[in-house]
Design a protein that fits this description.
Number of helices: 7
CATH topology of the largest domain: Thiol Ester Dehydrase, Chain A
Helix content: 10-25%
Radius of gyration: 20 Å
CATH superfamily of the largest domain: Hotdog Thioesterase
Distance between the termini: 40 Å
Number of domains: 2
Order of helices and strands: EHHHEEEEEHHHHEEEEE
Shape: globular
CATH architecture of the largest domain: Roll
Structural class: alpha+beta
Length: 344
């Protein structure tokens, strides 16, 4: 019998803080797998290579946070899966060996209007390092079953009459230009990824070990009705494809003798991450990126803040996820640049 059900989450309740230490070898393996470097890491030493990243990749931190909550809470609960993350902000770099403390509090809780056996719990989180510095803030919403209600498996069948579409080709890789040269409204394909059962289970065992991500038989009896990928895995795959896409173009430009390329300072986080459909074993997701808004960084005139729209679509043309990442990109120097609308 699960220890925690939807009824146990009350607004204002603070969850037990969770401590963790950033492992350099794990960080390096994550960066290699999800293309947080360019063509290759600078060396084989985990600490030095992690330092070359400027700190742990943000998606690595998200994965660690999910794992910490899986161990301390989700594995003991009636969890039915995540709905999304309304925000995730990375404020300071995290390096190999850092000791972190993760805090979480219940911000809202309500019964689902469309599923009587499910409640939605919104949690506000923060992470601090050993010096007490704030590292990140987040808000995410999770589905929990009401006490005593068994999970009702959903159908994993494709939409009626739908046939898989041909996988579209990725766009020709290009270097992200200076902030002023980005055109709001422009979008491009980053490529596609098929999520096989082995890859789904490998990621989930490390970071999101829920039965519907790790065990086919248990997944069939779960809310999802079949083995599906962790939502975080589907989102960070966009980030990995984006890094590989633009790094390939940068490396080609450098080989051709281009010496002045815009610098990308960091990915500052994202807003409005929503998972619309599960990504089941065997599904192929095509990822796209688009420019939503660009503006000058108010405190650092040599840099611009760019908001992107990230999407993923399965082989039936259904949107499976959407979010709005923020990138800090070098500016050429033009004044007064602000174009595009803020994401909702």
């Amino acid at each position: 019998m699960p220890q925690y059900a939807f009824e146990d989450f009350r607004v204002g309740d603070a969850l037990e803080p969770v401590g963790l230490t950033v492992d350099g070898e794990e960080l390096l393996a994550f960066a290699r797998e999800f293309h947080c470097f360019g063509a290759s890491p600078p060396c084989d030493d985990p600490a030095e290579s992690a330092a070359a990243l400027g700190g742990a990749p943000g998606w690595f931190m998200v994965s660690l946070l999910v794992r910490s909550r899986a161990d301390s809470l989700y594995s003991k609960s009636t969890i039915r899966g995540g709905v999304g993350m309304s925000k995730m902000h990375w404020l300071r770099p995290v390096r190999a060996g850092d000791r972190l403390t993760c805090f979480m509090a219940v911000r809202a809780a309500r019964r689902s209007r469309s599923m009587a056996d499910i409640g939605l719990v919104t949690m506000e989180g923060s992470v601090v390092n050993g010096n007490g510095d704030l590292i990140s803030t987040s808000v995410n919403t999770v589905m929990f079953g009401v006490r005593g209600a068994a999970a009702i498996p959903r159908s994993v069948e494709p939409p009626a009459g739908a046939a898989p579409r041909p996988v579209p080709a990725a766009a020709t890789p290009f270097v992200l230009p200076f902030m002023e040269d980005l055109i709001p409204g422009r979008s491009w394909s980053l490529g596609s990824r098929t999520f096989d059962a082995a890859a789904i289970k490998a990621y989930a065992r490390r970071y999101d070990p829920e039965p519907f991500h790790t065990d086919e038989d248990a997944a069939k009896k779960s809310f999802f009705g079949g083995l599906c990928a962790s939502g975080i895995q589907t989102a960070l795959t966009w980030s990995g494809l984006s890094s590989r896409f633009h790094n390939a173009a940068r490396e080609q430009a450098l080989r051709e003798g281009v010496t002045r390329l815009p610098k990308v300072a960091l990915h500052a986080g994202f807003r409005h991450l929503r998972w619309f459909k599960p990504v089941y074993a065997g599904d192929t997701v095509t990822y796209r990126a688009g420019i939503v808004r660009r503006r000058r960084c108010p405190r650092q005139p040599g840099w611009g803040i760019v908001t992107l729209r990230a999407t993923g679509e399965n082989q039936y043309g259904e949107t499976v996820l959407e979010f709005f990442p923020t990138v800090v990109l070098e500016a050429r120097g033009d004044k007064g640049v602000t174009q595009g609308k803020s994401p909702r």
